Amino acid sequence: MINFNAGPAALPLEVLQQASEAVIDYNRSGLSILEIPHRGKLFDDILEESKVLVKELCGLGDDYDVLWLQGGGRLQFAMIPMNFLAENATAGYVDSGHWSTEAMEYAAYYGKVKTLSTSKEYNYTQLPNWPSLKGEDLSYVHFTSNNTIYGSQWPEIPKSEIPLISDMSSDIFSCRRDYTNCALFYAVAQKNLGAVGNTLVAIRKDMTERIVRSVPPMLSFKEQVAKKSVLNTAPVFPIYVSLLMLRWIIDKGIDAIAQDTNTKASLLYNEIDRNTLFTGIVKKEDRSKMNVVFLGKDKKMEQQFLEFCEENDVTGIAGHRSVGAFRVSLYNAISVANVQTLISLMQDFEKNYQ
Ligand code: PMP
C-alpha cells in the first residue's frame, strides 16, 4: 500500500524494520526498546545521538538546545505563549491557515495577540504577505512554515529582529532551511520525523531568559532544558524511531532529499495542471511541496477516484474535512516512484472516465 496520509504518515521500510527489531531486542541488550529505562546509558545514548543529528541537520551551534517533548503541536501552541507572552504584552502571528489560527487561539489565553497578516479572505488559497515588523513591540512572531491542510508553504525562513518562532511540523527536513533565523522551532514527529508521541523543539539559549511567568516544570522550557528532555518518563520508543529517521535522512543526504521533494512536487502539480479532471487550489507561487491539495471535476468523480485509488493500493489522498477533495502528502518516506504510480492512476482514470 502506498500511504499518502498527512500524519501519522508513511515511514521508510528500513526504519520500520529497525524499529520492529528493537521491539524484540534492542541492540542485543536482551531487552525490548519498550522495556529499557528512560534514565540510563541505553536511552542516554539515543537522546544524545538524536540531538547531535538534529543540530547537524539544522546547522545549529552550542547556542541552541534540542528537546523532545510530548503533547504534540497543540502543546507547543500553549507552551510558547505560556512561557513567552506576559498578560499585558503582545505576540504577533502570521495567519496562513488552520494551524496558525489555532496557535493564535491558544496564545489568547495568556496575553494579547496581533494578527500581523492573514490570507483568510482568500480562504487560505495563498500565503499572506510577510509582515513588516518595523516599530512593532512584540514578545515574539509566530508562523507556520508549511500549511498542512491548505497546502501552501513559505519558501524560506525570514530573518527577524524580534524572536521568530516557527511551527515546522509538516516540512522539517524536506529541504535546506535557515533554521538559525528562528529563536525557537518545533515539529511534531508523525510526518517527516517518525511516529506519534514526541515533538522536536529547538530553542536558542537566550530564550530561556525571556520566560515571563512561573509555570509547572513540565510546561517550562527552562526546566525541560535543565532536565534534558527527561523531566518525566520520556517516550523512549517514539524518540528512538525519530533517531532512526534522523539517521535515514543523514544517510540519504538533505540535498538529495530536497531534490526528490522538488521532483515529486513538480511531477504531481504538472499532472494536476494537465489532467482535465483535476484542478489545483493554491496559488502557484505558494504551492506546498509537502501537501498537495486539489479538487476533482465534481463530488461524484472525486468519490470514484478515491475508490479507484484504494482498489489500486493507494491510500490517504482524501482531503482534510475542512477543505475537501484531495490532499497528497509527499513526506520523505514517499519516493518519486510512488508519485509516478499515483500519476499513472490519475491518467488511467481520466482515460476511462465518462
Ligand atoms: N501544526 C501543524 C503544521 C500540523 O500539521 C499539525 C497537525 N498534525 C499540528 C500543528 C497539530 O499537531 P498535533 O495533532 O500533534 O497537536
TrEMBL record:
Major localisation: cytoplasm
GO terms, molecular function: O-phospho-L-serine:2-oxoglutarate aminotransferase activity; pyridoxal phosphate binding
Annotated protein name in UniProt: Phosphoserine aminotransferase
Cofactor note: Binds 1 pyridoxal phosphate per subunit.
Originating gene: serC
Keywords for this protein: Amino-acid biosynthesis, Aminotransferase, Cytoplasm, Pyridoxal phosphate, Pyridoxine biosynthesis, Serine biosynthesis, Transferase
InterPro entries per the UniProt record, alphabetical: Aminotrans_V_dom, Pser_aminoTfrase, PyrdxlP-dep_Trfase, PyrdxlP-dep_Trfase_major, PyrdxlP-dep_Trfase_small
Pathway: Cofactor biosynthesis; pyridoxine 5'-phosphate biosynthesis; pyridoxine 5'-phosphate from D-erythrose 4-phosphate: step 3/5; Amino-acid biosynthesis; L-serine biosynthesis; L-serine from 3-phospho-D-glycerate: step 2/3
Subunit structure: Homodimer.
Binding site for pyridoxal 5'-phosphate: G73, R74, W99, T148, D167, Q190, N232, T233
Residue numbers of N6-(pyridoxal phosphate)lysine PTMs: K191
E.C. number: 2.6.1.52
Function: Catalyzes the reversible conversion of 3-phosphohydroxypyruvate to phosphoserine and of 3-hydroxy-2-oxo-4-phosphonooxybutanoate to phosphohydroxythreonine.
The organism's taxonomic lineage, starting at the top: Bacteria, Pseudomonadati, Bacteroidota, Chitinophagia, Chitinophagales
Tagged with keyword Membrane: no
GO cellular component, one term: cytoplasm
Pfam families: Aminotran_5
Organism in which the protein naturally occurs: Taibaiella soli
Family stated for the protein in its record: Belongs to the class-V pyridoxal-phosphate-dependent aminotransferase family. SerC subfamily.
One GO-annotated biological process of the protein: L-serine biosynthetic process
Transmembrane segment boundaries: none
